Amino acid sequence: AAKEAGRNQWCFFDASMQAEAARRLALENALRAALDDPADGGLSLAYQPQLDASGTELRGLEALVRWYHPALGAIPPSEFIPLAEESGFIDRLGDWVLRTACAQLAAWRAGPLGARFAALTLAVNVSPIEFTRPGFVERVRAALALLGAETGPHGLELEVTEGLLLQTDDELIDTLNQLTALGVRLTLDDFGTGYSSLGYLKRLPITQLKIDRSFVAGVPNDPDDAAIVRATLSMAHDLGLSVVAEGVETAAQRDFLRRHECDAVQGWLYARALTPDDLLAWLREHQVPPTPG
Ligand code: C2E
Ligand code: MG
Ligand code: MG
Ligand code: MG
C-alpha cells in the first residue's frame, strides 16, 4: 500500500510539475510577445508615492511594472521578473521600464501640475543582472535624454537589491561610478534581506537604503524588528546615507519610524501604486502645493 501511495504521489508531483513547466513556457512566450508591443501586450507602470518623514509632502515616486495579459490575467512582477531574468530578456523589459518611467515624468513635468513634479525623485527598480550587461550605462543615458537632462539634478534613482553585491568586482564599481557621474542616485532595496557583508556600503556609491517591508511589518511591537530598524537607521545616518521605509501600513509604524528619524516613507497607509491618471487625482486631493519661493 505504501508503495502504491508513493507511486501515486510521484504521479501527482509529476503532473503538477508538468503543469508548472507549461505555465512558465506560456508566460515566457507571452512576455516575449508583449515586449514587441508593450502597451498592447498589457504592460504598464504604476507609481507609488514616497513621502517625507512627516508623511505630508510628496518627495518622489517609485515605478512598479504591471502586466495584465488578455488571456492569462494579472501576473505579479514576483512571477514574471524572475522569468525574464532566467530567459534572458530582462534587459529588454528593464529598458522599456526605464524609458517609460522617464518619459512619464517628463510629460508630468510639462503638464498642468508640472510644478508639483519638478523636484520629485523617480525610483526605478533594476535587476542586478541588468547592471552587468554591456551598454547598461548607455541605456540609462538614453533614458535620461527623455527626461531632458543628461546630468543631474534630474531626480532619477535606481533601486537595486543586495543580489547585485554578490558579484562585486572592478567592472561593477566602474559602472556604478559612471551612473553616479550622470547624477543617478543608487538605493539599496529590501535592505537586510540579503546575504552580503556591510563592507560594500563603504566601497560603493550608494546614497540611500530602503528598509525591507518584512522589518517594517514588525514595528513597533516585535523587539527584534524594532532593533533591526533602529540599528539600520542609526548606521545609515552615521555613514551619511538616507533611509526610506517601504510597506508602511499603520499609524503605529509611521510613528515609530518618525521617532527614529527615518527620512522617507512609502506604503499603503499613504497610497498604493497608482496609474498615471490616479496619481494626478491623488495629487489634486491629498497634497498641498508647495509654497512658492
Ligand atoms: P520592491 O521594489 O521592494 O517593491 C515594493 C513592493 O511592495 C511592490 O510590490 C509594492 O506594490 C508593494 N507594496 C508597497 N507598499 C506596500 C504596503 O504598504 N504593503 C504591502 N503589503 N505591499 C506594499 P510589486 O509591485 O508586486 O513588486 C514586487 C517586486 O517586484 C518589487 O519589490 C521589485 O523587486 C520587483 N519589481 C517591480 N517592478 C519592477 C521593475 O520594473 N523592474 C524590476 N527589475 N523589478 C521590479
Ligand atoms: Mg523597489
Ligand atoms: Mg523594496
Ligand atoms: Mg520589497
From TrEMBL:
Ranges of residues in domain EAL: 24-287
Location of the protein in the cell: Cell membrane
Name of this chain's protein: Putative signaling protein
